[in-house]
Specification:
The structure is a single chain. It is built from 11 helices and 23 strands. It is of the alpha+beta class. Strands 2, 3, 4, 6, 7, 8, 9 and 12 form an 8-stranded antiparallel sheet that branches. A hairpin with a 4-residue loop joins β18 and β19. The longest helix is centred in the first third of the chain and has 20 residues. The relative contact order is 0.17.
Length: 491
């Protein structure tokens, strides 16, 4: 049997996983078609594949790479040449993106990573046939920002009959959800069923049960179809294309996390009703997204404003603040069904974090930027915080700074600024050398390899999973980050 935890050696884990996978395939093959897949790692370096295919790296969070279940293509499935190798090179006959038979399930299982801040499994509509709703509030708003419009409304370059969607099909299955149902997540064996068919879910669960897997260790991601979901199931060319991602962030032990990623003790199966079977599919309707909450941060607004003033005074002045957008609030309202209704790219939306990002910023003239905000891990609004740097032309996440490096960064401004333990200030520039006195070491050098000369970058702030809940904080209750260009020591 597959081990209960990851305490055994990597070799024994692999042997146990292989034996269990073989037993499960045998159990399912008696009544269904089964095809083996494999997991692969999608890293920042793999953007070269995504950009070549989609001209867009989807604003990946650079805090961690992603794990992608790669599946074998069914014989009668349309394998879209426009999406080939969009998320890294895959073996012949396999794909990271896939269409869904109305009577199938994808099964991802194995040992979850060692303890960390976050792990999740979530499926997205990658592309779908359609066009933009240019009358929508989101499109009209972005049409005033031509440099941003293409980020959110884009066609598949090699097939302009399809739009880039990358929109969620429901709530993620994250470590909090797993903990609540099964009692533990990190380092445990867990099973995930991704399916549009309730009958197939039951069939896979029954097979797992016969092999001794407790039902509490099995999690289903129900893929809706039709109606308000805006999801089109099927294997033909006009059906939606899907992708499933596992995300693992901030391991408690970096070496252990890297070892898990290097081995990926996971199996991927694709299971479906035989085409000769007369059984009808039992589709799912769209399930409601979980409600989100937050500890209101309005009470820190005056302190954040005072911090901005104190930072600008220390540096001898600041320029005008750079616009910062909350993509989860109207008019963008990035949530899967909303995006699909208007043909908008949801950029792999997730309800597990808030998401603020800035307008484009230049680095070509020695600019130094200060980023200030509440630190959501200190305001009871996040399990972890990621301050990210995204190269604008490729929408590629190139660097990130997490909350341990942000903690205490505003304290030297007390007592002129209140609640400094709840705030952070961090600096971004081309070269932090010689700025230690003013930045107190809280500075990230953005090299030309990250953001080439002549290109701009965007700043993002993501607050992940509010403590005591399974989802990120409600963004409308948070303070927006403040981004200003400071004058610099020689100004």
């Amino acid at each position: 049997m597959l081990p209960t935890t990851c305490g055994s050696s990597a070799t024994s884990q692999g042997a146990d996983l292989g034996a269990f996978t073989k037993s499960l395939v045998h159990e399912l093959s008696a009544h269904y078609e089964v095809a083996n897949g494999y997991p692969t790692l999608y890293t920042q370096a793999d953007c070269k594949y995504t950009y070549a295919v989609l001209r867009n790296c989807m604003g990946n969070n650079p805090a961690a790479p992603y794990i992608v279940p790669v599946v074998r293509t069914w014989p009668n499935e349309y394998s879209d040449p426009a999406m080939k190798d969009a998320f890294g090179h895959t073996r012949q006959g396999y794909g990271a993106t896939y269409r869904l038979d109305p009577r199938e399930a994808i099964v991802l299982f194995g040992t979850l990573p060692p303890a960390g801040r976050y792990v999740s499994v979530q499926t997205y509509v990658a592309t779908q046939e359609g066009s933009f709703d240019e009358s929508s509030a989101a499109y009209r708003y972005l049409a005033r920002l031509p440099s941003v419009l293409g980020t959110f409304f884009g066609k598949v370059p090699k097939d302009p009959s399809r739009v880039e969607s990358f929109s969620s099909v429901g709530n993620s299955i994250n470590n909090v959800v797993i903990d609540r149902q099964s009692g533990a997540s990190f380092g445990t064996r867990r099973f995930f069923i991704i399916t549009p068919d309730a009958n197939m879910d039951e069939a896979v669960r029954s097979a797992l049960g016969r092999l001794g897997v407790p039902s509490a260790d099995i999690f289903t991601e129900a893929v809706p179809s039709g109606g308000s979901s805006g999801v089109r199931i099927g294997l033909g060319r006009s059906a939606d294309d899907f992708i499933t991602l596992m995300r693992y962030a901030l391991p408690d032990n970096a070496r252990a996390g890297d070892q898990w990623r290097a081995k990926l003790p996971l199996s991927v199966l694709r299971v479906r009703e035989r085409p000769s079977s007369p059984r009808a599919a039992q589709p799912y309707a769209m399930t409601a997204y979980d409600a989100r909450s937050a500890a209101p941060e309005k009470k820190y607004a005056a302190d954040l404003n005072a911090l901005e003033g104190a930072v600008c005074q220390r540096w001898g002045g600041c320029g005008q603040p750079t616009p910062v957008y909350d993509v989860q609030a109207p008019p963008l309202s990035q949530i899967g069904p909303t995006c699909r209704q208007i043909g908008m790219n949801c950029l792999a939306d997730g309800q597990d974090s808030s998401y603020f990002f800035s307008a484009g910023l230049s680095l070509d003239h020695g600019e130094i930027y200060a980023v200030m905000d509440t630190l959501a891990t200190e305001t009871d609004n996040a399990t972890y915080v990621s301050l990210g740097v995204t190269e604008s032309s490729k929408l590629l996440g190139v660097a990130s700074v997490e909350d341990p490096a942000l903690e205490g960064s505003a304290r030297s401004y007390a007592p002129a600024v209140g609640s400094t333990g709840k705030l952070f200030v961090y600096y971004l520039t081309r070269n932090c050398s010689g700025l230690g006195r003013l930045t107190e070491g809280r500075c990230l050098s953005i090299t030309s390899d990250m953001v080439p000369p002549g290109q701009t970058f965007k700043i993002s702030v993501r607050d992940y999973v509010r403590p005591g809940t399974a989802r990120g904080p409600e963004s409308s209750q948070l303070l927006k980050p403040v981004v200003v260009q400071v004058k610099g020591p020689s100004s």
